[in-house]
Amino acid sequence: MEGQVNWNFALIEVRPDLPQSISDDSLRFSVTVDRDGAFRIDDMPEGFYLLNVRFSRDVAGQLRDYRFVVPAQEDNGPNRPIKLGILNLEKI
Which of 5, 25, 27, 42 could form a disulfide with 60 if both were Cys (CB 3.0 to 4.6 A apart)? Predict the structure, then answer.
């Protein structure tokens, strides 16, 4: 996606990567996004997740079902950030 993206209209959702026959609405995370598109979610339990990005207006593209893993954390160690890198929006 080229050009300026209005990230204040971005809606980011993270949910567990479960089979469609199993639904767990209790583990959904909403995310606040910085001006540059950076975001952070604290205190996620270990597991497999799907990330989706869409826009409420000024649509800049989308990202659907980006898979990532949150590994188990050591009980006595610091929580370490998981860097997903640069995520590219797809044209709609």
Answer: 5
Distance CA 68, CA 16 (A): 10
To the nearest 10°, report the CA torsion of 65, 68, 73, 79.
Answer: -90
CA 86, 25, 61, 64 torsion-angle sign: positive
C-beta separation of 31 from 41 below 8 A? yes
* Domain spans of the chain, in order of start: 7-70
16-63 pLDDT per residue, tens: 998 866 666 677 787 878 989 999 888 888 999 999 999 999 899 999
**Tokens found for residue 54:** 């869409």
Of 14, 16, 13, 74, the C-alpha closest to 47 is 16
| Cβ–Cβ < 8 Å for 6, 21 | no
